[in-house]
Write the structure tokens for this entry.
Amino acid sequence: MYREVLQMKATAETSAWMDEVRLGPRIRELRQQKGMTLRRLADKTGLSTALLSKVENNAVSPTIPTLWKICETLGVRVGYFFQDGDHESRDYVITRKDKRPVVFREGSKHGYLYESLAYGKPDHAMEPFVVTVAPGERRGGKLFSHAGDELVFVLEGRVEFLLGELSFVLEEGDSVYFNSERPHRLQALDGREARTLQVVYYR
């Protein structure tokens, strides 16, 4: 039930923003510019053509690992898809606390809601987010992995951090820096949501 509420919250807050970003058509346009078919992109990324078709048609939003695989294959950084014409000549962006775009990903079905802190900055090497982590079952959830390094800093609440077979409890003010190629995930504890600052660096 909580995750359904989280998903509804993300949809209500970001439907207009997602229409503006139009992530799927941008991926399709870049793929076509590269002269690459959907089947070839699927073969190179290891993703299914069905999933990629849904992504390009904005039927689903890609997770961070999925988007990373697409970007790596197409030869761009993730930030390529999160910029607009108003910021192309700037080497900085300011994100107001009440204006953070929510990146509504498939990952939110697993209890995550991402708020971007670098939207509009062209060609940025890091992806910083404020992430709301929903409470849920302690074990059995899907682990994620993607190329690069990642920093997680706990802003509110307590979380269990899983890294492969390892498990750590992080409290407010705690942080962890790790190789994000290792399977990992966060789980909010105590039956309450938690908020974290997460920065992904794509090597």
Residues 10 and 80 are 23 Å apart (CA to CA).
